[in-house]
Amino acid sequence: MSQKLSIPEVNALGYEEFIDRFGGAVEHGRLVAAAAWSARPFLSASDLHFRFCEFLDQLSQAGKEAVLRMYPDLAGKLANSGGLTEESVREHKAAGLDSLSADEHRTLSELNEAYKTKFGFPFVICARENKKDAIIQGLKRRMENDVRTEAVTGVNEVKKICHLRLQDLAEDSTSKM
Amino acid sequence: MSQKLSIPEVNALGYEEFIDRFGGAVEHGRLVAAAAWSARPFLSASDLHFRFCEFLDQLSQAGKEAVLRMYPDLAGKLANSGGLTEESVREHKAAGLDSLSADEHRTLSELNEAYKTKFGFPFVICARENKKDAIIQGLKRRMENDVRTEAVTGVNEVKKICHLRLQDLAEDSTSKM
To answer: Start and end of every Oxo-4-hydroxy-4-carboxy-5-ureidoimidazoline decarboxylase domain (chains A, B) (predicted)?
Structure first.
């Protein structure tokens, strides 16, 4: 991964460089980064994150569902076939999802499928803040939600994932690490 | 380009197939297609287009600006370097933008730059509905707008472009052409 930038350095980026760097803070999220671009200059790393959140919060229900559809199933087909984004690979690993037993893998797959059948979008949770057991419990619990609550819940997890990804890319100090 | 689908065929697509086919109806617009996906089954080709428009209309000002930033400058750097999407290449050609004189090219480049400096996003116009002279006149005229009016005007052009791109991909009749 490239070196972290300070906020003045982020503010000095050209548009294409900004999108290259931050277009994956939300999965396949060039549009989200392009919306955040409107708010430059950013005052701080928190302000940068806030602009991503602002775009997400203002989306319609279908828009929130669309954001969730950009994420891979946890330990799903894409992970098995090596098709995850670099960010997702690290996050899966942090949660222990790269070392599931056959039983755990089957449980997670079945719950994911049931969730997608009910809601029409995949289950999204901040894997770096949850271990595999907490993820399986979260899936069971959130399955009880209605679709509007669950879209908001999922997007809140997207914001947490985005926050951690941004922390890897930019920081508040005025010089590089 | 692949064969047109009827609306029942569109409704029978899986999610990934749908995104592969319609993710470029709005430039780099996987998220827009993923939002339209929420409204399945589509009643008609118009209904399909309406769902793309619905997402665009519900975007915040920054979101609308972000959509416009997904489009290349007309006859700009990307066109010169062969970096346009397949759709954009055809649209540039339809407007005669692939055969500008040196003077026309300079005029268009200068106007594009002035527009981007004023608004912070590129000038978007439905090239298949305009020839090069009309595009240059449109640029001059729209430069007088304020930024909110111009974001809405630009997004209305995005909807026209999307409409024509969708017509190439799906049709109302119940059988393939």
So the answer is: 11-167
Rounded to whole angstroms, how far apart are CA atoms A85 and A127? 14
Helices (H), chain B: 7-11, 15-22, 30-36, 45-57, 61-69, 77-80, 86-94, 102-119, 132-142, 147-169
The predicted-structure confidence for A61-112, as pLDDT tens digits, reads as follows: 999 999 999 998 876 766 677 777 888 888 888 888 888 888 988 999 999 9
Residue A18 maps to a domain: yes
Do A19 and A94 lie in one domain? The reply is no
ipTM of the complex: 0.88
pLDDT of residue B177: 41
Query: Scanning every residue of chain A, which has its alpha carbon at the shortest distance from the alpha carbon of B29?
Result: A31
Contact residues, chain B to chain A, C-beta under 8 Å: 15, 28-32, 34-39, 51, 54-55, 58-63, 65-67, 69-70, 120
Where residue B161 sits, what CATH number does that domain have? 1.10.3330.10
Average pLDDT rounded to a whole number, residues B62-76: 90
Q: Do A36 and B62 touch (CB under 8 A)?
A: yes
The boundaries of the domain holding residue B86 are 66-165
